[in-house]
Design brief:
CATH class: Alpha Beta
Distance between the termini: 23 Å
Oligomer: single chain
CATH architecture: Alpha-Beta Barrel
CATH superfamily: Alanine racemase
Largest sheet: 8 strands, parallel
Helix content: 40-55%
Number of strands: 8
CATH topology: TIM Barrel
Strand content: 15-25%
Bound molecules: pyridoxal-5'-phosphate
Number of helices: 9
Structural class: alpha/beta
Strand order of the largest sheet: 7-6-5-4-3-2-1-8
Number of domains: 1
Length: 231
């Protein structure tokens, strides 16, 4: 079932690329299989079906799985990160999507320096200014990006959005489109270290719309693994 779902999502991504009007139809889209609240067996099944990228929300849960998974994968931290877990996050994750403050960026830079790593990160944007969501507001993005670009052990790769959970998925389209504008604008800027090439947006309910509007990384959990059982 997981293998079938995974392949089905890949097909839908390819079809959504064909419907793009602004972004290139050819640009690759990375599918991150979001495995939070699913066990290691499910993760192995997805990887054996071709999944190359794994997304986890919480450092502690990811650490336990990391030790027993016994498969190669690129690890993405997609959930909120507290500064006191920066060290573990840097040890484990290839890309951290949820950087949204100078304080967190600094903690990650320090942790990366200690292990001689350059940590790839995205800045999470709270475009709809939802009170319960993390992320920087659009007007604060530029200054955070400049601060991050000064940090020797961080490499900014792009931006990430968690869209509001609208009933009508078409309501998310203008937000995705605005993120694409911000992304293309960032790409034209001159940086010391940053290499902007990732636009992370779209989940099970809205990944096709996100790809249509230019997402090149989507994060899908339920669509691959089924509903999550929260313990
Ligand atoms: C859980 C989660 C996802 C996946 O959500 P689904 O609706 O199950 O596809 C994607 N991104 C983030 C940040 C998440 O927390």
């Amino acid at each position: 079932m997981i293998a079938e779902n995974y392949k089905n999502i890949l097909k839908k991504i390819e079809a959504a690329k064909e419907r793009r009007t602004r972004a290139s139809k050819k640009d690759n889209v990375t599918l991150v299989a979001v495995t939070k609240n699913h066990d290691v067996n499910a993760m192995r099944e997805a990887i054996d079906a071709g999944a190359t990228d794994i997304g986890e929300n919480r450092v502690q849960e990811a650490r336990e799985k990391f030790q027993t998974l016994n498969r190669n994968a690129t690890w993405h931290l997609i959930g909120h990160l507290q500064t006191n877990k920066a060290k573990f996050a840097v040890e484990m994750f290839d890309l951290i999507h949820s950087v949204d403050s100078f304080k967190l960026a600094k903690a990650l830079n320090d942790a990366a320096q200690n292990t001689d790593k350059v940590q790839n990160i995205l800045v999470q944007v709270n475009l709809a200014k939802e009170a319960q969501k993390f992320g920087v507001f659009k007007e604060d993005l530029s200054s955070l990006v400049e601060e991050i670009d000064e940090m020797e052990h961080l490499k900014l790769k792009g931006i990430m959005l968690i869209a509001p959970n609208f009933n009508d998925k078409e309501e998310t389209r203008p937000l995705f489109s605005e993120m694409y504008d911000i992304f293309t604008d960032l790409k034209t800027r001159l940086f010391k270290r940053a290499e902007i090439n990732i636009l992370s947006m779209g989940m099970t309910g809205d990944f096709e719309t996100a790809v249509e509007e230019g997402a090149n990384l989507v994060r899908v959990g339920t669509g691959i693994f089924g509903a999550r059982n929260y313990l």
